[in-house]
Specification:
This protein has about 45 residues and is mainly α. The protein has one helix at about 15-25.
Length: about 45
């Protein structure tokens, strides 16, 4: 059964590997989380 599985190997360069590691959180530790806020304009609308 294992003989039927196609074997594929994709080679990637250093920058691509770094992007993939970062994107999938492999080998990284989150130090800070940046909170981005926007003004809720509905709060300030006069009726």
């Amino acid at each position: 059964m294992v003989e039927r599985i196609e074997k594929r190997l994709a080679l990637v360069d250093g920058p691509t590997l770094a992007k993939l590691l970062y994107a999938f959180s492999v080998g990284v530790t989150e130090e800070r989380v940046l909170s981005v806020k926007r003004l809720d304009e509905d709060t300030f609308i006069e009726e």
